[in-house]
Fold this protein.
Amino acid sequence: MTSFRRVLALTAFAGALVFAGAAQAQTTIKVGLALPKGLPGFDHVNGMYETFGREVEAASKGELKVDLAYGGSLGNPNDRMNQMRRGIIQMSDASDGNYAAIHPDIQVFSLPYMFPTEQAAWKVFDGPAGTAMAEDIRKKTGIRVLGWWEAGGFRHFSSNKPIRTVADFGGLKVRALGPANAKPVEAAGGIASAIPFNELYTSLKTGVVDAQDNSVSVFRLVKLYEVQKFLTLSGHSYSFGPMGINDAFYEKLSPAHKKIVDDAAKKAIAYNRETSRKIEGEALAFVKQNGVTVIEMTAAAKEEMRAKMQPAVRDWLLTQISAPKVLEDALAAVKAAQ
């Protein structure tokens, strides 16, 4: 080999080593998401993770890459959550109901009429109670909670007849999945029916069930305004989600990269909460324009609902959670946040 060719070969080899080193230096955070990309009216979830990705990649100067897999392409929420636990992916948009399957204590935050406002919920989640719950989740599941996001805010009942008081639940067939959702309905006098989400629209349209509960943004997203004439702003349960990341993966990051991930999560959750509040207002206006009668429950009617629903769920929760103190501490945190 001539000297010139030898130089060329060495140069090419060195370039390949540099390229390989750069490729190895880049660490990918794969995130499994439920919703399609660009879905209108639900940006508080996808947009949150997109914000996280932009912040992480910019601050790390490309050393960390965030790969978002949209539209449930990696499986259902429980599948994605378990993939995150095993380290197959690093993050998932699984919400409180999914986490309940692997960490029942999280259900204390879903007690009916637990939170008076969204802001009170944020104070609890961002404070000692949320931090303690996050640490317990990390120890018992291997998922580190980077923060707590809003999954549409408060849930409200919709129906094919007006619901203004507890008495209006008498004999009403209400879609409710799992004991945490069924017990409040039954305590109010309704008949709980376990209808899968993908069958909800048709079940309401054909009269298999008369009513359901979801956030206003979900109510609009799946077009329930086409099959339900009344939406009662009961605000009986707050929908949230932990922003989780595989803890073993996180612990392998450098201190600088950990800080980048932590900071990006804070910005993403701030985006989520602000956007969720905005979207709820837009969704409420939209369903009104599309013929839905929106009913504001009186304070007295809400108190009557709380008095019926909360004890039933509380009694059940005490059979599910690790210790009564978990619920006591959560309730104390809510009281302090008001």
